[in-house]
Write a structure and sequence with these properties.
Layout (H helix, E strand, L loop, with lengths): L4 E3 L2 E6 L11 E6 L16 H9 L10 H4 L12 H10 L4 E2 L2 H8 L13 E2 L4 H14 L3 E4 L16 E4 L19 H14 L3 E8 H10 L12 E3 L6 E9 L10 E7 L4 H18 L7 E2 L2 H12 L1 H6 L3 E8 L7 H10 L5 E7 L4 E8 L4 H7 L2 H8 L24 H14 L16
Parallel strand pairs: 5-7, 6-7
Antiparallel strand pairs: 1-2, 2-3, 4-5, 8-11, 8-14, 9-10, 10-12, 13-15, 14-15
Length: 449
């Protein structure tokens, strides 16, 4: 068997032969013309970040998160402590938006992955840049540390306080000033071949090429009860002449369904300005990959609800992982030909100590989201992962942080990707912009560089 293609509205799934799954060893999943994923920055999911996190970060059954200062060897810097005079000053700057209620503060002190927790006693909610400026002026004069916070959806502990920093929330600064509609994708065996074919035939209309492995698919179907369009009967119609079933979603991509055991899935999305021209290019691509055996099955969707359903399978992997146990997250940039090798190596290295070792990401820019789950936090698992993951990445001349940033958790590993001279320059630039070091301390840069 060959891989799968599913495509929403120029998206589709594809499975390629490689290392996992039934008789095929790579699946791919591809997608259609860019349809705005409405409702939230989570894209395909229909929930807002706050509702999205509440499913597992504020559950009454969830155990209390250990304070960051107790789990990690970090020392509080000599910043001032918030006083009554400070509260009065902030009330004059942002009247009615000075929050000291511990119950409200709890959600802002804990990251949504429930791995780090601060002890801030103050949350400020400015609406304008002028208010932010006045707040920071006061904090600079008083030597009060500040923790800026947006949606608190960070993966590396950068969005929550480490100690008692003042939380400066941008939640009310939600006016859209301008919007630029950007598209384009500048851009292991069959997945990589399909990627090459995809770039060659779709070219400028290719806007996304996402991959995920079979364990990711198992997690989202197991923990979130999301249905795979590759197996969901509602995405099929019978062929009147042969009796076979084909995947559809307003457009038809002929192929047979396969089981969930296919090792990889690819989601492809295209975005072009001429529908007829784009459809022709897509059809040429589908015909070639299906006839060559790179792809065995897929679906194409134009209906925005089915487009969202396909994106949900990719975009809610982090949520599914969080429900599987304690998560060790790594966001790496690697050469595309070695992108999945680290996942395979770690499965052998960790053995039964890990519940799951999964890989997914953006093939176009060599971005691998490597995730490992265990029943609970385990020093043994962490010791097997670090510094092994960073050393492995450095040997491939990759980056230890591709898009999640460094935050609090990864600041100590920047040296695997940057030389000492670069670290010193970063420290110097930080000192120029923030001479007292009050802005998000303990984050991004090593304590000494």
């Amino acid at each position: 068997m060959a891989p799968h293609l599913v495509q929403p509205g120029w998206r589709f799934w594809r499975q390629a032969a490689c290392t996992l799954g039934a008789s095929v060893q790579h699946r791919t999943w591809a997608g259609v013309s860019r349809i705005p994923r409405l409702g939230s920055p989570w894209g395909a999911t229909a929930t807002s970040p706050r509702v999205y996190r509440s499913g597992f970060s504020t559950s009454p059954r969830a155990p209390e998160v250990m304070l960051t200062r107790e789990r990690y060897p970090v020392r509080r810097l000599p910043f001032s402590v918030v006083s009554g005079e400070d509260l009065a000053a902030f009330e004059r700057i942002v009247p009615g938006r000075v929050i000291t209620d511990p119950e409200v503060l709890e959600a802002s002190n804990v990251d949504w992955l429930r791995t780090v927790r601060g002890s801030s006693v103050l949350l400020l909610r400015p609406r304008t840049t002028e208010e932010v400026s006045h707040i920071l002026r006061h904090c600079h004069e008083r030597n009060l540390a500040v923790n800026p916070q947006g949606g608190n959806t960070g993966m590396v502990g950068g969005s929550v306080p480490v100690f008692d920093e003042v939380i400066l929330s941008t939640a009310l600064m939600n006016q859209v000033i301008s919007f630029h509609d950007m598209s384009g994708c500048p851009g292991f065996s069959e997945v990589l071949q399909t990627f090459s074919t995809c770039k060659g035939l779709l070219g400028e209309i290719l806007s996304a090429y996402e991959f995920m492995d079979a364990e990711c698919m198992w997690l989202v179907t197991r923990h979130l009860r999301l249905a795979s369009p590759v197996q969901d009967p509602s995405w099929f119609i019978p062929d009147q002449h042969t009796g076979r079933r084909y995947h559809v979603a307003e457009s038809v991509c002929a192929s047979e369904p396969v089981d969930l055991e296919s090792p990889f899935y690819v989601l492809i999305e295209t975005s072009g300005s001429r529908a007829g021209h784009d459809a022709e290019k897509l059809n040429d691509f589908l015909e070639q990959v299906l006839s060559s055996g790179l792809v065995t099955d897929g679906t194409v969707a134009t209906d925005h609800m089915k487009v969202k359903a396909l994106w949900a399978l990719r975009e809610r992997i982090s949520e599914a992982l969080s429900r599987d146990g304690y998560v060790y997250k790594y966001d790496l940039s690697l050469p595309t030909e070695r992108l999945y090798d680290l996942v395979t190596d770690l499965r052998a290295r960790l053995g039964p100590r890990a519940k799951h070792v999964v890989g997914y990401g953006h093939l176009g820019d060599g971005n691998l989201h490597l995730n490992v789950t265990s029943e609970a936090f385990s020093p043994s698992v962490l010791g097997a992962l670090e510094p092994y993951v960073y050393e492995w990445t450095a040997e491939q001349r990759g980056s230890v942080s591709a898009e999640h940033g460094l935050g609090f958790k990864k600041r100590g590993v920047l040296g695997y990707s940057k030389p000492p001279e670069a670290l010193r320059l970063m420290q110097q630039l930080k000192a120029l912009l923030d001479p007292k070091g009050i802005l998000n301390p303990y984050k991004t840069l090593p304590a000494q560089a």
